[in-house]
Amino acid sequence: MKQVTHFHPALRALHWLMAAAILAMLFIGVAMVSTVSSMHAVLVAIHKPLGAAIFLLVLVRLWVRFATPTPPLPASVAPLQRALAHLSHWVLYALILLQPLIGWAMLSAAGYPVTLSVGFILPPIAPVSNDLYALLRPLHTWVALVLFIMVMLHLAAALLHGLMLRDGVFSSMAGTKRRG
């Protein structure tokens, strides 16, 4: 099998689409819980369907990731860095999968509908329970914070590879010519 130098175009498109959606979602989430203005309802109306879309996109992304070959890391990447890179990617995938499910379960436990659009409401995935809601509400916040930290670390690593090391790692996802 021929070794690839870039991620599959669908995987690259999903990566950048999800990056924008996740960053938007994190900032919308902060704004949503920080305001009591009339914007709160608008932000909630964006937050729920965007969370569902991110969940569906990560499922598609994982399918494409397993169905297509991926470029290897350069030989210059030390074994510990290689292990951390792989671990951090799987932690990101896990957080991106879990966060919408936690939000959905949290709203279900509170007895709130998860309305994605007019007339389209997701079924509850958890029983109505104040105790469960009390557990899931802070969990949703903490997972968002950890996700934000992981995204910032991922961005820092991408910039390190793209601007300083120029070893081809960044270009493999950007779709540009490899330098390394």
From TrEMBL:
It is a multi-pass membrane protein. InterPro entries: Cyt_b561_bac/Ni-Hgenase, Cytochrome_b561_oxidase, Di-haem_cyt_TM. This is Cytochrome B561. Residues 7-174 form the Cytochrome b561 bacterial/Ni-hydrogenase domain. It is found in: Cell membrane. Belongs to the cytochrome b561 family. One of its GO terms (cellular component) is plasma membrane. GO terms for biological process: respiratory electron transport chain. The keyword Iron-sulfur does not apply. Keywords: Cell membrane, Electron transport, Heme, Iron, Membrane, Metal-binding, Transmembrane, Transmembrane helix, Transport. Its cofactor is heme b. The lineage of its organism: Bacteria, Pseudomonadati, Pseudomonadota, Gammaproteobacteria, Enterobacterales. The chain crosses the membrane at residues 12-33, 39-64, 90-122, 142-163. GO terms for molecular function: electron transfer activity; heme binding; metal ion binding. The keyword Kinase does not apply.
